[in-house]
């Protein structure tokens, strides 16, 4: 089970990097748009520096033709390191690029996945991760859970190495459902993760512990001053 941060925001990554046990950072052009017209290589290098060498960084290509996608992949690894995951939408051109890049030992995250067929092609092409779009599938009445269960079954039944990084979440219920259906990983906006710890019931329980403790040992008492 893995959690990834679905953000390109430096301060958000810094804030939550020491809070959540995360495995990597995923970006796409829409996520990076939110940062404005930054120097993109400096920005992505800074993300890499913050998360360190062990965690994965997923960067999406911005072109459509397979030859351009391949060139972009080379440029991305030249700028950010060979361990960078190249995110490629599963289209005819994208699939062609994925197959080629796997022969060159690139790390690939196949993305923009709405259907079982798209994911299956990417698994067969040797993608390291496939990213099914949970919320976007639900928005158009595709059964996201069935799609993820299908990928999980295919990967296990045919002994494939591909991992499912479920993506496009609008609430934590969707994230938990994705894991229950067999996703290995989920990429989530860190503020959604933080919100899941801010429930009034959690704070209520903590307040009660404090109240009980202080009723015996006095206000402000803790193991530090007893
Ligand atoms: O529907 P949304 O929130 O735009 O999400 C699209 C998803 O696509 C991805 O690019 C897939 O990895 C994620 O970064 C993102 O979660």
TrEMBL record:
Q: Which InterPro entries match?
A: Aldolase_TIM, TAL/FSA, Transaldolase_AS, TSA/FSA_arc/bac
Question: Which named protein is this?
Answer: Fructose-6-phosphate aldolase
GO CC, alphabetical: cytoplasm
A GO biological process of this protein is: carbohydrate metabolic process
In which organism is this protein found?
Fervidibacillus halotolerans
EC numbers, comma separated: 4.1.2.-
As one GO molecular function, the record gives:
aldehyde-lyase activity
Pfam families, per this entry?
TAL_FSA
Localisation per UniProt entry: Cytoplasm
Name the keywords, alphabetized: Lyase, Schiff base
